[in-house]
Structure to design on (582 residues):
């Protein structure tokens, strides 16, 4: 098996996803098949090949540091499910 | 006259000559949506009132003598481009009630031209899918056969254009998401060069691959939309400061003499290539040779690794991009949970559908300690080799032609539980995103069952003009784009 049940649970935890046993079993099978397929990449000799993260040649996109238009604070947080006095409300973080 | 059947350029002419009003045109399109939506399910949100108000405004602008090519034209927008004040869901439960406080750059440009936005179209959730079956909202059906998928992820936009439920549309393409549904629905779809169109306000899936582009009833409309949406945008640091030519100026019926078309030999070996697709594409290439194009054999030696590279890189980028959906800033939150960690987990697990979760897991796994080099770095290195393949091929040809998808639209439900088989159907489209090059899908035939088939034309970076020239000349010699599904 390319990926174990424990690994799926570990990665789910890193991704902040919770999963019942049924989903974990399904993912172990499906993701295992995908990762096995991806193994074909090992046939390619990539010694000394520079990785590409961006397909178009661009140097740094600098701009002048000038204040521009921005969203009003209340509008910016308007979509938050819970908010108060211009701030986001979240459940208690420290005990 | 059935106004909803018009193309952008036909409607523009009538609006300009004041033979019709945008009010009449928009009303006709909204009525058409009302009559056909039950069958096709192309839209997540139809913006009746907003559209009629925009149409009234467009009519005022026109009567003032100020008309642009898109003034008063009803367009559909894939539901992942931010539209100020108009719900934008990404077809995900996690954004079910998200109303953007600003317009994406492409929408700002359409509005500046006084276009009319009739609604937001269905898609696979977060653009992850090739069939629209992974939408968290509904499954769009192919107007040519309602038991089949429209393609994905811009399936709603493609189906809406094909069924005349809009005059033109925008989609986005991360691995074929404009070209493949365009092919399956018998319309024209272009993925521009990476960086040609601003991604500002586009909900991100895989940032090094995503690009916005048009889905239209013909090649001329595609060029018209590109004229408006292309160009540098300081709000998108990956947009490229290159001048935008007038793409319609390359639509001249002067044949294909002097154009060299490369046919990748590796594509003959693709398994599961449907004979109807193969024959339609061969016929199209023969036609282009008759029109003066020269065909040469080219090689893209790393073609067989394209699916592997893509399905590592895209999930890696997605897992990072989708970390922002945490129930705090926008979208759905499970309010019953009392600790932050429980709230994150429950919100994300309820909010994301299974394909999105699958890709987040794959991406996080491939980026996690101990696996980064074996998966992400390795895939990024092979991506370099794929780009070099194209660079080498384009030394002997101007364009590369291939099928868009190995088969015509498949039946709904056929591949939904078999993700790898679904991924393999993206074989012809993924490489353009990995290499950042432009591609267009143009109708080139029909299967024995009457399903549309498209041909894909790929070009060099920022060479959309040659794509337009070839696509236009081919289209003028054929009538595939004029056929309509019976609804």
């Amino acid at each position: 098996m390319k990926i174990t049940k424990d690994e799926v649970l570990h990665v789910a935890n890193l991704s902040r996803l919770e999963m019942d046993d049924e989903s974990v079993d399904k993912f172990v099978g499906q993701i295992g098949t995908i990762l096995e397929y991806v193994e074909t990449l090992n046939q390619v000799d990539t010694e000394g090949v520079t990785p590409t993260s961006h397909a178009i040649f661009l140097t740094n996109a600098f701009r002048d540091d000038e204040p521009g238009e921005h969203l009003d604070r209340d509008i910016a947080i308007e979509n938050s499910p819970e908010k108060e006095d211009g701030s986001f409300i979240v459940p208690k973080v420290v005990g | 006259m059935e106004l909803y059947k018009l193309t952008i350029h036909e409607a523009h002419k009538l609006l300009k000559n004041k033979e019709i009003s945008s009010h009449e045109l928009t009303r006709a399109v909204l009525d058409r949506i009302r009559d056909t939506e039950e069958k096709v399910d192309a839209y997540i949100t139809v913006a009746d009132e907003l559209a009629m108000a925009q149409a009234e405004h467009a009519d005022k602008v026109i009567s003032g003598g100020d008309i642009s090519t898109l003034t008063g034209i009803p367009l559909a927008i894939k539901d992942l481009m931010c539209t100020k004040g108009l719900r934008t869901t990404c077809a995900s439960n996690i954004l079910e009630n998200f109303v953007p406080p600003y317009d994406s750059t492409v929408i700002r440009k359409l509005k500046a031209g006084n276009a009319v936005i009739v609604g937001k179209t269905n898609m696979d959730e977060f653009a992850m899918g090739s069939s629209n079956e992974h939408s968290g909202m509904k499954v769009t059906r192919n107007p040519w056969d309602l038991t089949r998928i429209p393609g994905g992820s811009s399936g709603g936009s493609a189906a809406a254009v094909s069924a005349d439920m809009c005059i033109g549309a925008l989609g986005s393409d991360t691995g074929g998401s404009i070209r493949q549904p365009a092919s399956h629905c018998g319309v024209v779809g272009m993925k521009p060069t990476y960086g040609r169109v601003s991604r500002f306000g586009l909900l991100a899936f895989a940032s090094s691959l995503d690009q916005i582009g048009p889905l239209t009833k013909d090649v001329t409309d595609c060029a018209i939309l590109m004229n408006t949406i292309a160009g540098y945008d300081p709000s998108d640091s990956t947009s490229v400061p290159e001048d935008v030519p007038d793409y319609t100026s390359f639509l001249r019926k002067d044949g294909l003499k002097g154009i060299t078309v490369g046919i990748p030999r590796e594509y003959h070996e693709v398994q599961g290539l449907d004979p109807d697709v193969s024959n339609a594409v061969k016929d199209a290439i023969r036609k282009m040779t008759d029109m003066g194009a020269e065909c040469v054999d080219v090689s893209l030696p790393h073609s067989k690794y394209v699916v592997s590279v893509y399905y590592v890189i895209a999930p890696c980028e997605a897992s990072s991009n989708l970390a922002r959906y945490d129930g705090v800033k926008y979208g759905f939150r499970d309010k019953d949970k009392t600790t932050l960690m429980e709230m994150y987990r429950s919100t994300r697990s309820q909010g994301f559908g299974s394909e999105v979760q699958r890709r987040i897991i794959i991406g996080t796994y491939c980026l996690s300690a101990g696996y980064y080099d074996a998966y992400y770095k390795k895939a990024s290195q092979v991506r370099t080799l794929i780009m070099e393949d194209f660079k080498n091929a384009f030394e002997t040809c101007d364009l590369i032609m291939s099928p868009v998808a190995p088969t015509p639209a498949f039946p709904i439900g056929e591949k939904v539980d078999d993700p790898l088989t679904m991924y393999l159907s993206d074989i012809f489209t993924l490489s353009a995103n990995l290499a950042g090059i432009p591609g267009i899908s143009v109708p080139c035939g029909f299967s024995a069952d009457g399903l549309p088939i498209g041909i894909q034309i790929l070009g060099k970076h920022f060479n959309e003009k040659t794509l337009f020239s070839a696509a236009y000349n081919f289209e003028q010699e054929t009538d595939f784009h004029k056929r309509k599904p019976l609804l």
Observations:
- Residues 40 and 49 of chain A are 17 Å apart (CA to CA).
- Chain A has a mean pLDDT of 92.
- The longest helix of chain A spans residues 21-38.
- The helical segments of chain A are 5-14, 21-38, 73-76.
